[in-house]
Design goal:
Elements lengths: L2 E5 L4 H6 L3 H9 L4 E5 L5 H7 L5 E4 L2 H8 L4 E6 L10 E5 L14 E4 L4 H12 L8 E4 L2 H10 L4 E4 L3 H6 L4 E6 L9 E5 H6 L1 H20 L1 H10 L5 H7 L1
Parallel strand pairs: 1-2, 6-7, 6-8
Antiparallel strand pairs: 3-10, 4-10, 5-8, 5-9
Helix pairs in contact: 2-9, 3-4, 9-10
Length: about 240
C-alpha cells in the first residue's frame, strides 16, 4: 500500500516532516511506499479522510472526533508534549462592546472555526463560566469575514490567536475575556484509519518513530525548522527517487 500522510501548517511536526527528506529518511530506508498529501489546514483533513484520500495525519484533537461522528474508523496513535506557548489570544471582545465577562455573552454571537481547536476553546471558556454552548450564538466564519464583522461591531466575540489578534489590535481595541493558554495545553494528536494500521502496522510504526524524531529535531533546531516552513518547499519520497 501507499501510505498517504496528510500534512498541514496547523501541525508543526507534520509541517516540518513534509519539507525534509532527511527527516523522512527512515521511511525511505525501510522501503515504505508513502506520499505526502498537503492539506490547507487541520479542519480539511476531516473531509479528506471521509473521501478516503488520507491514511495518517495529525493536529488538534477535534478533527478525528469529527471523523468518528461521520463514521470514519479512526485510531488514535500518539500525542505530542503540550504546546502551551503557541497561543497569544483567546476569547476576545471589542473594548467598547460593554461586554466584561463570559457571562455577558449569553445570547450573543461568537465566531470560531467549527471542528478546530477554536471550538474546544469556546466550549471550555463557556463551561468555566457556567454557560452551555446553546447559551451563545456560535457562528462558523473565516478569519477574513470574522475580522470585518468584528471591526464593524456586528460580531460580539471571537476566538483568535496570533498573528490575528495583533492585526486586529491595529484596527480596534480588544479585551481578552479568556486566554487560550489558560484552558488549552494543545498537544498534537497523530491518528490513522484502522484499515491502514491493520494493513501495514510496520509502516505506521516507522512513521511514528520518524515523527518523534522530527519533534526532537525541531526542539534542537528551531531556527532551521522555521526556515523550512518559511521556504514553502514540500519534499517527498518521489524527490529522493528522482535524485537517485
Amino acid at each position: 500500500m501507499t501510505l498517504r500522510i496528510g500534512a498541514h501548517h496547523n501541525s508543526p511536526t507534520l509541517d516540518v516532516f513534509a519539507r525534509s527528506l532527511e527527516l523522512q529518511q527512515p521511511l525511505i530506508d525501510a522501503g515504505i511506499d508513502y506520499q505526502i498529501v498537503w492539506c490547507f489546514d487541520g479542519v480539511e483533513t476531516v473531509e479528506m479522510f471521509r473521501i478516503g484520500a488520507l491514511d495518517v495525519s495529525g493536529g488538534a484533537s477535534q478533527p478525528p472526533v469529527a471523523m468518528m461522528a461521520h463514521g470514519v474508523d479512526v485510531v488514535f496513535l500518539a500525542t505530542s508534549a503540550p504546546r502551551d506557548g503557541r497561543y497569544g489570544g483567546g476569547l476576545v471582545v471589542r473594548a467598547d462592546s460593554g461586554i466584561n465577562s463570559v457571562q455577558d455573552l449569553r445570547g450573543r454571537s461568537v465566531a470560531n472555526i467549527f471542528g478546530s481547536w477554536h471550538t474546544t476553546a469556546l466550549a471550555f471558556s463557556l463551561d468555566t463560566a457556567g454557560l452551555a454552548w446553546s447559551d451563545v450564538v456560535a457562528v462558523d466564519l473565516s478569519v477574513a469575514s470574522a475580522r470585518q464583522a468584528f471591526r464593524n461591531g456586528d460580531l460580539d466575540a471571537w476566538i483568535i490567536d496570533e498573528p490575528t489578534i495583533s492585526k486586529v489590535r491595529q484596527e480596534v481595541d480588544v479585551n481578552i475575556l479568556v486566554k487560550t493558554s489558560d484552558i488549552l495545553s494543545h498537544p498534537s494528536i497523530i491518528w490513522s484509519t484502522r484499515a491502514a494500521l491493520d494493513q501495514d502496522p510496520d509502516a505506521v510504526r516507522v512513521l511514528l518513530e520518524a515523527l518523534d524524531d522530527t519533534d526532537r529535531w525541531i526542539s534542537a533546531h528551531p531556527e532551521e525548522a522555521a526556515d523550512l516552513v518559511v521556504s514553502g518547499t514540500t519534499r517527498s519520497r518521489e524527490d529522493a527517487l528522482a535524485i537517485l
